[in-house]
Amino acid sequence: MIGSLLYLTGTRPNIMHAVGIVGGFQANPKESHLQAVKRIFKYLQGIQDFGLWYPRDADLTLHAYTDANSA
Fold first, then answer.
1. 8 Å CB contact between 33 and 25
2. pLDDT of residue 38
């Protein structure tokens, strides 16, 4: 289940923090962690119309800016 959620973080960055926290307990999970994962899935069912869309033909050039005086 965590793998499925990690896959979804590419288009739904709003769940990234919660998935990262739950994923940290993957080696020794408890019932509360399973409940948290189920709650994330319920949240995703409620927001099916939201998310990021990456079109195939669009130019995905990264532009970054910095302040030279910050050093």
1. yes
2. 93
